[in-house]
Amino acid sequence: MIQFQQVSKSYPGGFDAIRNLSFEVPDGELVFLAGHSGAGKSTLLKLMAGIEKPSSGAVLLNGQNLARMSRASLPFVRRHIGLIFQDHKILYDRNVFDNVRLPLDIIGFDHAEGRRRVLAALDKVGLAGKEKLNPISLSGGEQQRLCIARAVVHRPSILLADEPTANLDSDYAHDILELFKSFHQVGVTILISAHDESLMADYGRRILRLKHGQFCA
Ligand SMILES: Nc1ncnc2c1ncn2[C@@H]1O[C@H](COP(=O)(O)OP(=O)(O)OP(=O)(O)O)[C@@H](O)[C@H]1O
């Protein structure tokens, strides 16, 4: 369960990106986050992942207040979270396989089991057979799939995706959303942000709409 309790976030300079938000996302739910550019979608996802701290209020993961956690325990919490952010952070000096393997290396995963996981993740996102390629040779959509494989390779229970369909044509965007749906079907809690609400309409899921840092109808 993810809980926001009267959360506000001001960035230096006094700009309020998120204003007094309270909501809950139960385990296993798929939720969309809609809103104009600058509405606060990325900020909300960063607060959820513990990357940003609230200026006031509390963000709780399974009852634990992220802001109160020690620096040492935050990485353990993050292991339950898969992140797909707008700045891909793909490493172009490594091949596709090594990019996806990265989170497992950080955790210190067993080599053989790690290899199996990476190949399974690449297969899941439709990149089987491309593991030895340099990511630069992948299309934009394939690079997005690479990021998704990297986000799910450690089998997180929560997946946070910031505009994963940005810059993709609508057919490809639907393919990506279908991929998220398949993770949702195996019990992963998922939040997906997008400014194009028409993409979300077909999925019949809860849509949180942000406008200038607050929820709107
Ligand atoms: N690190 C930061 N420092 C200062 N201001 C920031 C920072 N990050 C975001 N902001 C500001 O907070 C507001 C919300 O930004 P945020 O990135 O959360 O919105 P968004 O809805 O994700 O927008 P977009 O769809 O364009 O990515 C914006 O006005 C932005 O300029």
TrEMBL record:
Entry GO terms, CC: plasma membrane
Listed SMART domains: AAA
Coiled-coil zones: none
Membrane topology, record value: Peripheral membrane protein
Record keywords, A-Z: Amino-acid transport, ATP-binding, Cell cycle, Cell division, Cell membrane, Membrane, Nucleotide-binding, Translocase, Transport
Chief location category: membrane
Cited Pfam families: ABC_tran
Residue ranges annotated for the ABC transporter domain, each copy included: 2-217
Function: Part of the ABC transporter FtsEX involved in cellular division. Important for assembly or stability of the septal ring.
The name this protein goes by in its record: Cell division ATP-binding protein FtsE
